[in-house]
Design a protein that fits this description.
- The chain is an alpha+beta fold and 455 residues long.
- 36% of the residues lie in helices and 20% in strands.
- The protein contains 18 helices and 19 strands.
- The chain has a six-stranded mixed beta sheet, with no helix packed on it. Strands 8-7-19-18-17 form a five-stranded antiparallel beta sheet, with helices on both faces.
- Helix 8 runs antiparallel to helix 18, helix 11 crosses helix 14 and helix 13 crosses helix 15.
- The longest helix is centred in the C-terminal third of the chain and has 17 residues.
- It is elongated, with a radius of gyration of 24 Å.
- The N and C termini lie far apart (71 Å).
- 49% of the residues are buried.
């Protein structure tokens, strides 16, 4: 009976984890399948081919990426290991679901079977706009649908050409510069969030003062000192008299440091937990965890730094996009996903993937309040370049200092549109660019314009 139970368990485990087991680099089954099948295509949401296999003059299969660098990190590569969708969907790409009669015909021709084709959620137009908008800058862009979790575009720079990955491999892995071209900054890049983290601090303050947050008042003279620790506003700007909403719209560091030291430790910790800091994220691609520490050893200075997204606090663009999506979707986070369906070479549906709710991160009321505050960032704050357009937008900018020099900062923007019925969520980081309002917001505008068809 024990032996039978063990066999049943092993069979069940092997079936339930068949994709993981097949993708293991030690599993020779992959080589057997690739000797019989050639990798299927990877396509965009509209059927544009993003990756396909051709046979070279030497008779060997060759993977081709027609868009070259534009989809480098999100589509990935299948030579010298695997990355991106090539890795995540490897199981489907190297298996075939064509009918027996088609296999017989191909056997007669001495041809391989075509692997199944993977259809993604990616939008070629938005990907091209995001890729070109980031230009030669280092950074990352994530574009999603907050109502479904579909990833519409994902760009990371510096990049590489997946068509020449084999030739370039040694130089890519030997490069010790900060470029890290193989790193997908959108999901694996960890950055200080700067003022975009004020979304988190504002939520914690809301939860700590649910009945009187509207009574909050602060007089900003460009700096805030508490228990011998001082926080300065960006470039020492004096914001004058501010309330809860205008502190957020004007991104007043002094005011948010003041809020931070007033929020109960338990409330702040619970907020970080609800927003998935220091924990696993519900995504299937390789990613880095975001970190925000507030424990018994956290000093007053650390709390003040945490409140404005500085100090040891780090976040990935993907995680910041997920938080923003939850706000845009009435507080509910949908699981981000990149693959919409798998079809055989003859068009037969093999498997489909649909949107799936992860869980509620914030309440409907909190979502409404944060949305209104993010609208004010556009209407009267640091994202005014999105004001007065044919669509409404809501968002938060950030200028995240990454070393001891206050002049060195990354430019952030995270937001969505239309503000009253969000369809698209955009998160951008431009490394070493300075102000989020000056550098990241114009990129967001180009992406929003492309989505809504604004010339």
């Amino acid at each position: 009976m024990l032996f039978a139970a063990l066999i049943i368990y092993i069979c069940n485990y092997a079936y339930s984890n068949r994709q993981v087991l097949l993708n293991n680099s030690y599993n020779t089954r992959q080589q057997i399948l690739l000797a019989q099948n050639y990798r299927g295509q990877i396509l965009s949401r509209d059927g544009d081919v993003l990756a396909y296999t051709t046979t070279g003059e030497d008779g060997k299969d060759k993977r081709v990426y027609p868009y070259e660098r534009e989809f480098a990190h999100v589509v990935g590569y299948s030579t010298n290991g695997k990355a991106g969708i090539e890795s995540a969907a490897n199981y489907y790409l190297i298996n075939t679901s064509i009918d027996l009669q088609d296999k017989v015909k191909l056997d007669a021709q001495g041809s391989k079977y075509p692997g199944d084709n993977v259809y993604t959620t990616l939008d070629v137009k938005l990907q091209e706009v995001a890729f070109n908008a980031l230009s030669a800058r280092k950074g990352a862009i994530v574009v999603t649908n907050p109502k479904t979790g579909e990833v519409l575009a994902m760009v990371s720079k510096p990049d590489y050409d997946p068509n020449t990955i084999a030739q370039d491999w040694d130089s890519l892995i030997a490069d010790k510069s900060p470029d890290a071209k193989l790193l997908n900054r959108a999901t694996q890049g960890v950055y200080p969030p700067g003022s975009t983290f004020k979304i988190v601090t504002a939520l914690a303050y809301l939860r700590d003062h649910p009945n009187n947050y509207q009574d909050y008042r602060f007089s900003c003279n460009g700096r805030f000192t508490y228990e011998g620790n001082t926080i300065q506003c960006f470039h020492g700007e004096n914001h004058g008299a501010v309330n809860f909403t205008s502190s957020f719209a004007k991104s007043c560091n002094s005011s948010f440091a003041n809020m931070g030291v007033d929020i109960k430790r338990s409330t702040f910790n619970d907020t970080l937990k609800y927003l998935l800091f220091n924990t696993e994220l519900p995504i299937t691609t390789l990613y880095s965890k975001s970190s925000a520490v507030y424990d018994a050893s956290t000093t007053t200075d650390d709390v003040m730094q945490l409140s404005i997204g500085q100090g040891t606090t780090t976040v990935t663009p993907m995680h910041m996009n997920m938080i923003t999506c939850a706000i845009a979707n009435d507080g509910v986070l949908m699981k981000p996903y990149l693959v919409s369906s798998v079809k055989s070479d003859t068009g037969k549906l093999v498997k489909s993937f649909s949107s799936e709710s992860y869980k509620r991160l914030i309440s409907q009321n909190e979502s409404d309040i944060l949305t209104e505050m993010m609208e004010q960032v556009v209407q009267s704050g640091t994202a005014s370049k999105l004001k007065g357009l044919s669509y409404t937008a809501a968002g938060k900018t950030g200028s995240a200092e990454y070393n001891t020099s206050t002049s060195d900062s990354h430019a952030w923007f995270t937001g969505f549109a239309p503000a009253d019925d969000p369809e698209i969520c955009v998160t951008i980081i431009v490394e070493d660019a300075g102000s989020g309002g000056s550098y990241a917001v114009p990129i967001a505008k180009r992406i929003f314009d492309a989505y809504f068809g604004v010339e």
